[in-house]
Amino acid sequence: MRLSRFFLPVAKEAPADAQIISHKLMLRAGLVRQTAAGIYAWLPLGLRVLRKIEQIVREEQDRAGAVELLMPTIQSADLWRQSGRYDDYGAEMLRIKDRHDREMLFGPTAEEVITSIFAASAKSYRDLPRTLYNIQWKFRDEVRPRFGVMRGREFLMKDAYSFDLDEAGARHSYNRMFVAYLRTYRRMGLRAIPMQADTGPIGGDLSHEFIVLAPTGESEVFYHRNWEQDRDLNVNPDDADALQAFVTGLTDDYAATDEKRDEAREAAGGDAIQQSRGIEVGHIFYFGTKYSKAMGMSVQGPDGNAIIPQMGSYGIGVSRLMGAIIEASHDDNGIIWPESVAPYRIGLINMRVDDANCTAASDALYERLTAAGVEVLYDDRDERGGAKFAQMDVIGLPWQVVIGPKGLEKGVVELKNRATGEKQELSADDLFNKMTAK
Predict the structure, then answer these.
(1) What CA–CA distance (Å, rounded) separates 112 from 364?
(2) Co-location of 384 and 251 in the same domain
């Protein structure tokens, strides 16, 4: 994409009311713009990152055996009354009426909807187990929306729901998601730690939230130092016993929020506990028959008797993850995107658009890389070099390629690694080979 044709409203300064680094940088880098309190428009560069994050989430859900569908944002209040949650959920639920005076709501989650959909089709034990997932916009009417997309009112969420015949099967589904989440975060360059958590309004007696360690995170956490090491996540998801042993082994290394730090130190030994700040990026629940029973769901078992399916739900804040990645990966100059979620892999800078040789070399390399499937954002504008460098740093593309008259005289271009700052000079052919190597 040529920057001269792109829509990228980069700002020199973030608004004064932006409090945390991810909010500041998302505004400065032209990723989002606020349209109302806690509600954001996703601009082209931000949308590209959002789609990359979404695709990683989708691939790991598919790998875990979940099946994607798409549920509506607007839900019937009657479904929530059937489960007993309509009056319990509180002021965070945005309640509306249609033109026929029917009570509706903008869904904050979808346990009721998915249960009603699956219950209408699943009649036999042969229809289970199943895990279905949905990547859809949600709305929670936060009393004080703040921190940009980290605590907005409208957000993109992956929510999955498992249906099993018994508790053993349900815990197996839970464990499959547990590992899928760790794989998801790792692919985004994040170190995530699972912590036992309260179930809140979702319900149930088993729950973990996943915390990404970031120096500027929203809460203080304590964790076993073993979590600073990379974990081998290669485990057979179809082997229930091996998977249970694997998850148990992971959760034996204690992690807790600030409220439980003394318990954490006692459980693991004071010297083994590390302290950091963190951001919640996912939450999983096992809640048995809470929704399936309330909504009258049952299937015929192999002996002909009715079975009420056991359920779990599994949420990942897709849009929230963008903020978490920035909180964990930035410097004083701007964002540092991991390659897996970067909006473009390369930022190509033509230092002298008024120089025919510079423009010809820049155009040729841009066309060549693009034809090879490399995502390039080409700064072909008639701007000062310093302004171009500053903009590339703030938007944080993994690689910067600089083409100028002096380099061309030597037959080289400059390649800069955004994360390390390391620079090297190499020929255009060598750069092409490096950027297209498998």
Answers:
(1) 55
(2) no
CA–CA gap between residue 185 and residue 53 (Å, rounded): 10
Is the omega angle on the peptide bond into residue 302 within 30 degrees of 0, that is, cis? Answer: no
The residue length of the chain stands at 438
User: Do 126 and 251 belong together in one domain?
Assistant: yes
Can you give the pLDDT at residue 257?
A: 62
With a CB cutoff of 8 Å and minimum separation 6, the contacts of 249 are none
pLDDT of amino acid 199: 58
Shared domain for 206 and 246, answered yes or no, is: yes
Q: How many domains does the chain have?
A: 2
pLDDT of residue 202: 59
The CA distances from residue 163 to 110, 167, 287, 411, in Å, are 14, 10, 11, 62
Is 340 among the domain residues?
A: no
Computed on alpha carbons and rounded to an integer, the radius of gyration of the chain in Å comes to: 25
| pLDDT tens, residue by residue, 105-135 | 999 999 999 999 999 999 999 999 999 999 9
Report, as ranges of residue numbers, the positions in the chain whose pLDDT lies below 50: none
Are the C-beta atoms of residues 205 and 199 closer than 8 Å to each other? yes
Distance spanning both ends of the chain, measured CA to CA: 23
